[in-house]
Give the backbone structure.
Amino acid sequence: MTESRPKLEPLGDCAITVALGNIITRELSRAVLRSMRSLLAAHIDGVTDIVPSYASLAVFYDAIAVDYDDMCSRISAALSSTAIARPIDPGMETATDTEMDTESDPEIDTATDIATGTAAHTEIDTRSESRDRGRVVQIPVHYDGEDLDDVSRLTGLSRAEIIELHSQREYTALVIGFAPGFAYLGELDPRLSLPRRSSPRKRVPAGSVAIAEAQTAVYPSSTPGGWHLIGTTDLVMFDPRRTPPALLRVGDNVVFENAAE
Amino acid sequence: MIAVERAPAYLTVQDLGRRGHLADGVPRCGAMDGWTLAALNEMLGNSRDAAGLEWALSGGELVFTKPMTVVLGGADAECEMDGATVQPYRALDAQPGDRLTVERIVDGRFLYIAVAGGIQCERVLGSRSTYLAGGFGGIGGRRLARGDTILVHEHRSQQRRQMHCLPENLRPPRRVPHIRVIMRTDTARESICGNEYRVSAASDRTGYRLDGAVVGGASITSEPVCPGAIQLPPGGLPIVLMADAPTIGGYAIAGAVISADLGALAQLAPGEAVRFKAVSVIEAQSALRRCEKDLLAIRAWSV
């Protein structure tokens, strides 16, 4: 896969945005993850936080200790050293990634792609016990959401079909944001894809499993929200007193299991 | 201990916020005007990120139940301690039974009260700052109410002297002619810096909305954001993200307010005018180092 050179630009005076693109694709998500791992592995002095998003990430740093130009050089060095290391170090990139990266059209046959990719990831994960790659998190769901009937009406699918489509595939945590521990999981079966509700709820209870557009998520805390609620989980998605506080990290694979089965 | 006898509409425990949890979606949090809290802490010989009280909106009353040294700063407020007017940036020795009354905030938005030793409460995710939306940090993750008791750490006064009165030149500036920003594009710079804005009433710890010229914005693929980032929603008015802002945002980012001036922006009350001036990252980081130098000067005096 050819990756264009990351674009570095200031995000205020204490952070730098590393932009790899500006759209949502699985390739970009993986590139962000790779960049994040390179940056973490480089243990750059003065870095306080690294925040990944869909097509970019931000490096937060102590600007009293390190100035902007210096930090840009350190980031570029960390990113390019990994790019060089890739072909000669098979441990850095799995066969799976190579296989996925060479696919001609990423938009076709998503389900198979994700399923295959994840299976291989899991295998590698078991061998290397890498905590960062292909971790699979299972989330038991009671499919009893308030909006199931609306979703059924809007999609023309039965409740059973909705449950089946939602729980049959593996998702990837693409971004954590909006609220602490809120993971945007992609991508949903296109048959379940719906625009957000026209009137958002003032309060969506914690543990609500929801869908909107091409994504699904679990609300970690009670917040306002406009997604369609299809179920609930008893898992605690975010607990500030737990280490780590968020159940999901970017790059995790997620499977929803029908708790009624 | 400090007892809340009469709570203002907004009173929380804050320090300088959280580091290392942005990737979990946890905002930075912390004092809206961090420079003021840091300066007050340095005056008292506290560690810079000791927890203090952030007070806003209305009057209230605290009662001290132990002797302790206290100092106020930030917004101008009418305050009294046992009948005597309290001057900002001047350390006071409170005796048991003393009452600190804040009649009202006269000018500015956030009043800070620091105590020698710092406020004692559990650190959650590395910080004592209250994150209201998440319901954690500070005391019960909420605003303080009448009847609450605030614990204070023992102060190691034998180790550090305290500065009795902070000289004017070391006080964080409350009013600045313009808020300095780092802009990402020329277009954004022209529209943000070429217009006068007012802080909207719809402003809180998450973000300050600005009333004034509408700048063409857009929804974007969500990107990481930071406190100070200036967002441009489609067809809307700019929003400056503040301490409790989410870690990721889906609106175009025009640029960001520099760290040195974010406290001054935070102190602007709804309706107040604000002008922006573009600077380079280099200038922004020099300004940041000057703030650091001032804090170190206070510390050098009080050590």
Q: What stands out?
A: The first helix of chain B runs from residue 34 to 43.
